[in-house]
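Severity: low
Component: inverse-folding endpoint
Summary: output formatting inconsistent between runs
Steps to reproduce: submit the following C-alpha cells with default settings.
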C-alpha cells in the first residue's frame, strides 16, 4: 500500500487525477491528513463512498504510531517509533511502503518538552547518524537510514500532545540536512496553508553545517537555524566532530553571514560545555571573535555523560562565567535548561532504544 501521509498538495493533485477523481479532492485529502489528522481513508467522510473505496485499493493514510513512552520527573516525554528506513538518497525511493529498494527495520525517538504554555517536540530525521560526533549517542550507533516525510510528520501527529504543540525542533536523531529532501518536504507540510499552516517561526532546524544543503535550506525556507559549533578552534573541534574536516566551521559561518538574521528569522549556535576542553576564557574570547557582528544567540548546553567519552560537563560556575564573558563581549548567550536526563532524553542521549524505566 502507498502512504498518503507525507505527500504535498501537488502530489495529491496528481494522485486524484490518476484515479479519475475531481481535482478539489486533493485539498479535501490534505485537510483530512494534516488538519483533522485521521488515521484511515474511511474517515474522510466528505469524499464519496466510491472515491474512498477506490483510494483504499492502493492507498493508506500510513501514520506510524509510537510503541513506547517514557516520562521524566520534569514532565518531559520520550516517544519511541518503529520505522522502516532506506539508505537511498533518492526521495522517490526513500522510506515508505512504496520505496523502490529494501527497507531496514529500526526505531527512532521524539521528545516532547513542556514549558508553561509551550510544548516543543524534538523531532528525528534519520535513524542513527553519519556524522559521528564523539559526544552523541545517536552518532555512536552509526547510520541506519533516512526517515520519510511521512515518518517525520507521524511524530508530530501521533504524540499525545499533537494538538497542543507550539514548536518543532529538528534536533532529535540524525542530521536533518543530510536528509534534506524529506526534511524540507515535512517543513512544507507544516507551514503550507493546505497543511498544518504553522508559521516558520515555530520551527528550528539544527545542523553541524552540511554546506551544500545548508545553502538550499537558507534559500528555500524561512525557519530558524541552529548550528552545532562546540569549539571555536578547528583542530579541537575536529577531535570531537569529524565533520569539521569535510565542512569547516569557518566556511559554514561565511555562508551564514550572507543572509539576513536581523528580522524574524534567527540563527543560534549550540555549544556543549566540556570541562577543561572548551570552557576556558581563551575559548570564550575566540568564540566571541568568531561570531562578532553576526546577529545571533549562543546556547550553552551542559554535557550529559555517555560511556567511553573522556570529558565531563563543566561546573556550573564555569558555565556561568563563560556566559557572562560572552555577553560582555556583545554576544547574547544563555544556558539551556537540561530536560529529561533521567530517561535519556536530553541533548546527545537519543539512541532509539526502549528503556523500561518509567515506560508505558
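Observed output (run 2 of 3):
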Amino acid at each position: 500500500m502507498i502512504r498518503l501521509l507525507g505527500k504535498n498538495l501537488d502530489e495529491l493533485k496528481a494522485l486524484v487525477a490518476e484515479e479519475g477523481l475531481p481535482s478539489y479532492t486533493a485539498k479535501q485529502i490534505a485537510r483530512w491528513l494534516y488538519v483533522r489528522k485521521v488515521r484511515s481513508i474511511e474517515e474522510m467522510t466528505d469524499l464519496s463512498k466510491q472515491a474512498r473505496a477506490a483510494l483504499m485499493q492502493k492507498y493508506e493514510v500510513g501514520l506510524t504510531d509510537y510503541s513506547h513512552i517514557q516520562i521524566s520527573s520534569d514532565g518531559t516525554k520520550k516517544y519511541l517509533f518503529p520505522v522502516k528506513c532506506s539508505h537511498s538518497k533518492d526521495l522517490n525511493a526513500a522510506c515508505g511502503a512504496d520505496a523502490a529498494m529494501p527497507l531496514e527495520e529500526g526505531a527512532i525517538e521524539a521528545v516532547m518538552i513542556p514549558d508553561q504554555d509551550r510544548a516543543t517536540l524534538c523531532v528525528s530525521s534519520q535513524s542513527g547518524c553519519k556524522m559521528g560526533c564523539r559526544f552523541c549517542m545517536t552518532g555512536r550507533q552509526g547510520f541506519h537510514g533516512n526517515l520519510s516525510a511521512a515518518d517525520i510528520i507521524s511524530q508530530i501527529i501521533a504524540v499525545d500532545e499533537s494538538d497542543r504543540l507550539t514548536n518543532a525542533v529538528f534536533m532529535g536523531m540524525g542530521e536533518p540536512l543530510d536528509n534534506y529532501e524529506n526534511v524540507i518536504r515535512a517543513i512544507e507540510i507544516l507551514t503550507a496553508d493546505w497543511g498544518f499552516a504553522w508559521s516558520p517561526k515555530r520551527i528550528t532546524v539544527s545542523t553541524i553545517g552540511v554546506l551544500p544543503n545548508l545553502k538550499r535550506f537558507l534559500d528555500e525556507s524561512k525557519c530558524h537555524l541552529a548550528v552545532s559549533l562546540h569549539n571555536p578552534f578547528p583542530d579541537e573541534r575536529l577531535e570531537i566532530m569529524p565533520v569539521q574536516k569535510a565542512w569547516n566551521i569557518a566556511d559554514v559561518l561565511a555562508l551564514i553571514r550572507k543572509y539576513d538574521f536581523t528580522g524574524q528569522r534567527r540563527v543560534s549556535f549550540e555549544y556543549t560545555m566540556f570541562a577543561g576542553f572548551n570552557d576556558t576564557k581563551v575559548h570564550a574570547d575566540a568564540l566571541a571573535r568568531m561570531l562578532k557582528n553576526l546577529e545571533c544567540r549562543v546556547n550553552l548546553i551542559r554535557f550529559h555523560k555517555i560511556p567511553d567519552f573522556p570529558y565531563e560537563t563543566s561546573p556550573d560556575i564555569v558555565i556561568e562565567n563563560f556566559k557572562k564573558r560572552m555577553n560582555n563581549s556583545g554576544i547574547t548567550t544563555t544556558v539551556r535548561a537540561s530536560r529529561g536526563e533521567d530517561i535519556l532524553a536530553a541533548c546527545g542521549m537519543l539512541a532509539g532504544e526502549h528503556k523500561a524505566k518509567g515506560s508505558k
